[in-house]
Amino acid sequence: MSEKIRLINEDGLRVDGRRPRDLRSIKMEVGVLSNADGSAYIEQGRNKILAAVYGPREVHPRHLALPDRALLRCRYHMAPFSVEERKSPAPSRREIELSKVIKEALEPAIFLEKFPRTSIDIFIEVLQADGGTRCAGTTVAALALADAGIPMRDLVVACAAGKVDGVLVLDLNDIEDKEGEADVPVAYMPNLGLISLLQMDGSLTIEEFNQALNLAIEGCKQIYNLQREALRARYVTIKEDVEECLR
Amino acid sequence: MSSIMVSRIRQKQIAQMVASGKRLDGRGLNDYRPIKVETGIIEKAEGSSRVLLGKTEVVVGVKVEIGEPFPDRPNEGVFTVNSEFVPLASPEFEAGPPSEESIELARVVDRGIRESKAIDLEKLCLIPGRKVYVIFIDIYVLNHDGNLIDASSLAALAALLNTKIPVYIVEENEVKKTNNYIPLPIRNYPISITLANISDKLIVDPWLEEEEAMSARLTITFDNDGRISAIQKGGTGALTPQQIIEAAYIAKEKAEELRKMVVKN
Amino acid sequence: MFFFENRQVVTPGDLLAEGDYIAGNNTYKEGSKIYASRLGLVEYGEKVVQVVALNTFYIPSVGDQVIGKIEDVNINGWVVNINSPYKATLRASEALNKPYRQQKDDLTRFLDVGDLIFAKIIAFDRTIDPVLTIKEPGLGKITQGQIVKVSPAKIPRIIGRKASMINMLKRETECKITVGQNGIILISGPSPEHERLAIMAIEKIAQEAHTSGLTDRITEMIRKEKGARNERKDQVNK
Predict the structure, then answer these.
(1) Cβ-defined contact of A198 to B244 (cutoff 8 Å)
(2) How far apart are CA C131 and CA C76, in angstroms?
(3) Among candidates A58, A228, A246 on the partner chain, residue whose Cβ is nearest the Cβ of C11
């Protein structure tokens, strides 16, 4: 690998044909697993991620229960077949860090104080990964929480922005993340205007970082509309059932 | 990162003081605790340092070995950062596999060094594709009194600057160790600055009780040229975009101050 | 001022209203703004803004009557699953009419793991798990019938305004229907077919709880189904 890949071509297009500020194509569905209290599925570009929520429920082991609020636990995990080179099923240090960071992204949105001595467990399984999985994982986990009927202050939506070949871009895929100059994943609560996940790796001036942050927030707002649609679609499917029966 | 439970009254006190621009230990919102940096304290390590940040104490040891490079980077040396929250450092630390906080800390410090290209990895290649220097950076937290990330990051940089690597010569496609040592090639000096959000105000270098009272923390790592190499938001709260940018400007200034304690030129 | 139309679908975080209103079910207030906290249909009242949630779970309330399943027996009583994040306790003293002698009485003779009970919540707060009693009239061990589970948010719809829906169901299906506030409903009828009819009707109500004209539609559905069944019976008898 001695040749540096061109991430932006002469027409200003990215490796997958997108323009710098284009999101990848996104598909979301809510209520996909029958056993979980809440569930959702997302496809973003070639990312395929499933999220499930169990809870509020009894805490196991008991001694972890908090007296004044629900215990929020989150497990971000990648399937062994989700990446080019098979990944061992054992949680890697990266998965442990991301589990923590995603949990901290969702926590400010949930009314945990309403359910003392219970636990709310979030499971995020990445079935196929192509960059930006922590963002898509946060977005789909928020849908699963809403599906479970867990009261929230706001939805949480996430998107990354960054710099590749000197250009500010939105929603980096795997190659852009690995070969680009910077990646800034952001999780946002759109109605409250607050950021609950923020990381950066690469090299940016404060000004460039500011631009990336604003671009990521713009991306979040677009994805938020899709989240709302996916949740409202739960009602539409029920309405369709009703209409079926009336025939 | 919760340690000893801070009473509600205390948390309220801290919040009230911060809201009026002061802190319980008399510091200003933008002041670090007294910092002490010592280097070369572990002779058997190729590099070492000890940092005291207030009462937080971190020791970093650097060990150097020879190993294989990564297949996609055959001309570069390798480094890895590990952190141990040693049980004696806090009643909250238990022996066993690293906690998520410990892993996060190691990865944040790693990011700062890696993205700023602090270690000149290309100078650590002996036989491309086969033999390179492998640098082990081990962070040992000895006393937890808040802001482990900044203390560890500072100690890691100090230890790297203190590190001497043995000179190897390449003979007939094998490497041979000589008795000479040269300094580890360092070309950037990343500094992490952590701020905490309490009562909607930003304070720099939260100590243990302030960490209990804070809703969120933001760590920003700046390199020598004033560019950001890493950012990590932590904690269960949230920040406004304005707070984040304000924090970045404060952190840039503090990074320049802290760098002077470690880089003597 | 209102930001949605009545009965529109809202999602958590949606700004529903601003002004001097009261934050009702599944909403929360910040300053003078009322936001939705659950996915559901917004309902604007005179003073109260609330959301009829699509999915909720049961949080116990003192005084509620619930249907539970015995999960464990211990020295003092039983642990009961009441379809809630919290497990409930039924002490022997709240179940037996005569004094309980720890050494001599075997609790499993009264209620064993797997038994269903119709109980009342006599205590619950943020520090203790719910405590039940079955000593009041109408409460006790359930010996026959079938169970159907719905989201607790649907219970008010199943009961209906002034019990109109539940009374219609009882009448049309000829079943005894006991409704637990925890989303569990017991149906006991003259035959399994009657019970299945009631279960079908209840599940349908739960699915369509947010639509209008439901009582009439369900009545019609039950009658159609009864008609169809009678036809099938006649055919078999020929």
Answers:
(1) yes
(2) 13
(3) A228
